[in-house]
Write a structure and sequence with these properties.
20% strand; binds zinc ion; globular; five-stranded mixed sheet; 6 helices; alpha/beta
Length: 164
């Protein structure tokens, strides 16, 4: 169950997303990774600025967290993301042994351009994972997070649609 601690870290992720929106080459997705109540990694999406399709907020934060604790395994850590993680970031979370994924806006709250697959998503990957020690929870400050993104029915120019 999400609690006030979760909301606090999600607010921090929202601030990172806003910073990403203002940064050159960034975009408004923020992520915080917390271990034992302490932030060990954080970041925003910087795919454009880094010329790196894997530089999603979650991957940026995981790399920083791994460097901070000098361990690629982040067992017991919670990952907070303003947007439901994509397939790549969900898989990376599984590989990183992250214990819990908490996200704000979900697929239904935003435009489909934020996701690479028409049907498969975070829940499918988590459900099918060999690991059983991983939890996922969505909808924390969902309305605040959704404001950062294009809405479900919005018509977007082709150049804005990151997934096609
Ligand atoms: Zn991602």
């Amino acid at each position: 169950m999400a609690d006030s601690t979760d909301e606090g870290f999600m607010r921090h992720a929202i601030a990172l997303a806003q910073a990403g929106q203002e940064a050159a080459g960034g975009s408004p997705i923020g992520c915080v990774i917390v271990l034992d109540g302490r932030i060990i990694g954080q970041g925003h999406n910087q795919t454009e600025g880094d010329h790196d399709p894997t530089a999603h907020a979650e991957v940026v934060a995981m790399r920083r967290a791994g460097a901070a604790v000098r361990n690629w395994e982040l067992r017991g850590a919670t990952l907070y993301s303003t947007l439901q993680p994509c397939g790549m970031c969900t898989m990376a979370s599984i590989w990183a042994k992250i214990g819990r994924i908490v996200y704000g806006a979900g697929r239904g709250d935003v435009h489909s351009m934020y996701f690479e697959d028409r049907h498969l998503d975070t829940d499918d990957f988590i459900r099918d994972a060999y690991r059983r020690d991983i939890g996922i929870e969505g909808g924390v400050l969902a309305a605040d997070c959704a404001k950062l993104y294009y809405g479900p029915g919005e018509s977007l120019p082709f150049e804005e649609q990151a997934n096609i």
